Every structure is written in structure tokens, then in C-alpha cells.
Amino acid sequence: MACTIDEKKIEETIEFHGHSCPGLAIGIRAAELALNRLDFGPEANMVCVVETDMCGVDGIQYLTGCTFGKGNLIHKDFGKAGFTFFDRSKSQGFRALFQDDAIQAFEPAKGENEKEARTRAIMDADLADLFTVSPVDAPPVRPARILESMVCQECKEKVMESRIRRYAGKDLCIPCFSQYEQKI
């Protein structure tokens, strides 16, 4: 079944992202899947872990309200079109992995380029054909914590204590540490 998200919401999502493309369509459909399977109401304690930094993350962010700033949108740079949605208040969630082969048989309509055709194919496909879904029984990440800020002894800038690196007796931020340690 084609995308069930209101057309106005889709247009707002495209405007938020800046353009329409297949990647954004994947994120819109992943968000739709989450909205259908989990309650994204005010009482929900949602978290989303994205395994990519592609355009689709903007669709997920806009439609679900999960954001980096709130600490409930987490990026793990695995290079996969995998998206884990979890409601901490209900201890339920799932991981959805986009299946690109689901839209291999698309044909561009007259006057449509390949990018437009792929986008349309993603938006028109059944969710069950687009994603392999597997249950998640435990939260994919711990809740965000407020940590102490420390001063890097090299650049003198404040940095979250969990990001401090110790080198030659000095507390260093990651950029300053990387000037000394060549393995990063």
C-alpha cells in the first residue's frame, strides 16, 4: 500500500530537508512504519537509532520528533539503511532494514527521470516489501545523561568529560588528542 502519511506533512518534510529524493523517501517510509507500529504520543519515551547519515534521517527526525538535540536520535555510522525505533516506556521496539531490491522493477513514467522514478516507487510500495523488520527487546542505547564539562589543557575549551582523552598527563579534547595520537 502506498504511503499513508498526509500529503501536506510529506511536503513539509521535503521543505525541511530541502529537496525530494529517494533517500528522503526511505526516511519518510521508515517513519511511517514507526508511527504505525509504536505510539508516538506525548507519553511515549521514543528513541531512534539510525545506522546511516543519508537524507532519510531528516524525514525520520521531522515526522517522529526524534532529534539529536533531545538525545533520542542516535547516529551509528554503519553505512546501512537500518533504523531502530524503541519506546522506552513500553519496552518495545523494532529494527527496520531497507530492502533496495523491493523497487528494482520500477519504470520511469513519461517525462520522469530515474531519481523521480525511484522516489515514486518507494512512496508507492508496500511497507512490508520495503523493510525487513525484526523485534528489539531492549533499548538500543542508554538514556542521555548530563555530564560534567572539563577544560582541555591544550586548547582551553570545555568538553564533556566522557570525551576527554588522557595523554602524557594531560586531559585533552578529541581534536587536540588526535594531534598527538596518530591511530585515530
Explain this structure.
The chain folds into two domains: 7-136, 2-Layer Sandwich (60s Ribosomal Protein L30, Chain: A), CATH 3.30.1330.130; 149-180, no CATH class. It contains six helices and nine strands; from the N terminus they run H-H-E-H-E-E-E-H-H-E-E-E-E-E-H. The longest helix has 16 residues, at 22-37. It is elongated. A five-stranded mixed beta sheet has the order 2-1-3-4-5. A two-stranded antiparallel sheet has the order 6-7. The chain has a two-stranded antiparallel sheet with strand order 8-9. A hairpin with a 6-residue loop joins strand 6 and strand 7. With 184 residues, it is an alpha+beta fold. The termini are far apart.
How would you briefly describe this protein structure?
With 184 residues, this protein is of the alpha+beta class. The chain has helices at 7-17, 22-37, 56-64, 114-124, 127-130, 174-180; strands at residues 46-50, 73-75, 82-87, 92-98, 131-136, 149-151, 158-160, 165-167, 170-172.
